[in-house]
Amino acid sequence: MEEQATVENVIIEEKISKSNGDVIIKRYQRGKTLGKGGFARCYEITEIDTKKILAAKIIQKNTLTRNRARQKLISEIKIHKSLHQTNIVQFIHVFEDHDNVYIILELCTNQTLNELIKRRRRITQLEVQCYILQLVNALKYLHQNKIIHRDLKLGNLFLNDKMELKLGDFGLATKLDFDGEKKKTICGTPNYIAPEILDGKIGHSYEVDIWSLGVIIYTLLIGKPPFETQDVKTTYKKIKACQYTFPDHVVISDNAKSLITKMLVLDPSKRPTLEQILQHPFMTSNPIPKTAHISTLVGPPSMS
Ligand code: ADP
Question: What's the CA-to-centroid distance between 35 and ligand 1, angstroms?
């Protein structure tokens, strides 16, 4: 028998209490699964009244029994809710029922740069410039608002139907009370984590996002992360020693090498600022398109 991908007919109801005591119900039709994360499952959903198609991140409350998990979700919602910028996944709404918390987000139909790199292995310099320009825009906005993302990686860089890059997942983000504040919590994703986070004692700040951005540029151009090894312990050792090389078999420009080399340095204060990254020859030597072409989801851009 032929297998068919069926989508169950599930309706999500949001009860909205009006100030006059009335309760109205907003209904959403749950569509296909978009992905699964640590706590959440993400679905395409349609707001039935308006036919608007959105994404819903659904978190089962019974997975939030530990206080830390609850606090993390509350912090993610509080930070994400406050953000409004073209290159950040728009937070639309949050509500809950007896069993779940529902986070309604702008839908990004073209997956993440992680899937893109799995399909393409590596992408061209012009594509990298285009994605980095959009990501730096998002980061300028975050840092101006005293927010550090702390989990920049290909899997958190979404693409919408217009191929606009949207930074998402604020589960590890933090808001500083003042610019000189140093955070000490260990967090991040092994391949992309900055050395000062691994150290733990000295504290970290905005510069951890610059390190991860350097790891992202390297990974997009080369096709694998700079510090990747078979086990996390060895990866951490390499990060702490800033031990990585540019492989001979992939040709990348001297400008690309120069920028990556400036970003992946152990001393956070020596890394370039977002403004300096934008001024680097890697980003200024040619005109950069606003978005990548849809055809580049599956193959390199045509030369014409
Ligand atoms: P967690 O925080 O639990 O890791 P994520 O935010 O990473 O959950 O979401 C899990 C998966 O759902 C993602 O890897 C992605 O595939 C998908 N996803 C999340 N947000 C969106 C969105 N706005 N549009 C489309 N897909 C999304």
Answer: 6
Please return the burial class of 265, using the count of CB atoms within 10 Å of its CB with bins 0-12, 13-18 and 19+.
Answer: middle
* The predicted structure's pLDDT at residue 218: 98
Return d(Cα 52, Cα 60) in angstroms, integer: 24
Q: What is the distance between the alpha carbons of residues 132 and 177, in angstroms, rounded to a whole number? A: 28
Q: Looking at residue 1, what is its pLDDT? A: 44
Condensed to tens digits (0 to 9), the pLDDT of residues 160-176 reads 999 999 999 999 999 99
CA nearest 61: which of 97, 35, 105, 104?
A: 97
The tens digit of pLDDT for each residue in 18-56 reads: 899 999 999 999 999 999 988 899 999 999 999 999 999
- Cβ contacts of residue 144 below 8 Å, gap of 6+? none
- Identify whether the C-beta of residue 259 lies closer than 8 Å to the C-beta of residue 97: no
- Name which of 189-193, 226-230, 259-263 the model is least confident about: 189-193
Is 39 a pocket residue for ligand 1 (Cβ < 6 Å)?
yes
Give the chain's end-to-end CA distance (angstroms, integer): 46
Tokens for 277?
Answer: 């990254």
This complex has an ipTM of 0.94
Cα 295 from Cα 279, distance rounded (Å): 29
Å from CA of 136 to ligand 1 middle: 21
* Average pLDDT over the chain, rounded to an integer: 94
Q: Which residue, judged by its Cα, is nearest atom 25 of ligand 1? A: 108
Token pair belonging to 59: 């978190």
